[in-house]
Amino acid sequence: MSDRERAMNERQVKRAQLQWLDDLGCNLRSGLGLVFWRRVRSDSLKVSLGQLITLALLLFALEFVVAFAQVDPPREFNLYGIDYLAASYLVQLLLILAASRLAGADNTRFGKILVGMTSALLPLMLVGQTVLWLMMRWQQSALAYWLYFGLIFGWQLFILLRLLRGLVGVRLRRGLATTLLYGAGTLAALWTLPNIDLWYTDYRQIERAENPLSRLDVEDIYYAQPQLMQEGLAALEPQRPGVVDLYLLAFGSYGPEDVFLNEVEYVREQFDRRYATEGRSLVLANNPGTLKHYPLASGHNLRTALESIGQRMDREEDVLFLFMTSHGSADHRFSVEMGPLRLDDLTAPELREALDEAGIRWRVILVSSCYSGGFVKTLESPQTLVITAAAADRTSFGCGSTSDFTYFGTAYFKQALMQEPRFIEAFALAREWVTKRELEDNFTPSNPQLFVGDAIAGKLETLYAQPMMQRALASAEAVEPTCSTDSGEESCRTEVQQDQ
Question: What is the pTM of this model?
């Protein structure tokens, strides 16, 4: 190809590009005029496949941006939204074709009507979406939204009627009938086609950002349980002949709040140090920060732990202290929660069955939760001491995302046991303190409960006679209360005062 021919081709390409831009400008101006009810001449609408494709792409781009702006972040693109738009565009094309044919338009006039409608939809969408945004900002009523929809839809019908009248010359009555048929078809399409948005708010990202529990890998956690249980149980030492050993199982089962983990870890450290349970204590806890350290506080792991403790202890001689802390419900279910993991709540019959199957005879059970008094009747036996943080019909207090300890946990473990290491006697001190505090905070008292079996009191006296318990009893005489409602020391007060 010669230089002259190449130059001529380049000029032709430039002229074609300029012509395409000129035609696009004419169509956009015509569409703007139609939206604002100006008369449009037939020669101002430029029909070509390129113009139709360009206008359709502009319309899609506007739909894309408007849909993006209407959705709160974090946004996620929905590929199926393109299918919905494509189906909507196809239905509109067919409806405009049908309206044009009913009005008597030939192919040329149909092309101009199609270009005119597409060009007009661009500014009409801009105006309509601006009004809609203002209505949402001003929180208009449902009636206002219906009036808005009727106005925009009627505006679109009026544009089609103007095109049919101006380009085809159809009579007013026939034009109105054709336009109404087009409107009925559009409403039918809106009713039958499932509306699929191009963008949606990814609430899973929000949940993962706000709640670390939602980011947990469920499979990894489940598969890790056998190894964690094996390691924890392997560290449990067997009973010592002739010695009344105390075993501790601390069960904190509500993962979303750290307060329950704080309590089971504190109680384990306290019992290992003062009650010689080191090597005979086990923690089961639900908390995102301890998944690689503690087995889950689940019903299955609880039964496994009790069975293993029952095998290691002398069932006629040794004592189990079972401490359970979580939320509780009015139907006396003990909450077991760990984000996406499907864990079943515990009931008193299930706990009693697990203890009986493990063959553990001597039991001290402390249940700290709302309505925990509902556990007492089921757990009663001559060899059992049952302590609960609340009556069967009362809530307890002090849990929360910023709390360190519950009210009853503070009263019993941080205060009462430090002054009075004996479990039954410590309950009276804890009950007095927690009731006084609840009344000061204008709460209905939780009314903690105590059940002492006929045989357990004597068994505990045997436990207290052990050398390690004698040391604890002797040291308690010099211990000052760690907190009281009169001292004003905030170290003993939980920051959030809400029900368990």
Answer: 0.61
The total number of structural domains that make up the chain: 2
Residue 243 contacts residue 466 (beta carbons within 8 Å) = yes
Q: How confident is the model over 105-158, as pLDDT tens digits? A: 999 999 999 999 999 999 999 888 888 888 877 877 888 888 988 999 999 999
Within 71-106, where are the H helices?
A: 80-102
- Residue 245: CB partners within 8 Å, gap ≥ 6? 239, 280, 313, 314, 317, 318, 319
Structure tokens at 10: 């380049």
Which CATH number belongs to the domain containing residue 276 in this structure?
3.40.50.1460
- Going through 190-263 in order, the beta strands assigned E by DSSP cover 199-201, 246-252
| Same domain, residue pair 369 and 432 | yes
H-helix or E-strand spanning residue 398: strand 397-399
- Residue 91: how many other CB atoms lie within 10 Å: 17
Contact 426, 280 (CB under 8 A): no
Q: Which of 178, 205, 232 is the last residue of a domain?
A: 205
Q: Tokens standing for 395?
A: 């809530």
- Assign 437 to helix, strand or coil: helix
In a domain, 21, yes or no: no
Cβ(445)–Cβ(437) below 8 Å: no
Which domain covers residue 296, as residue numbers? 242-499
Q: Domain ends where: 147, 180, 205? A: 205
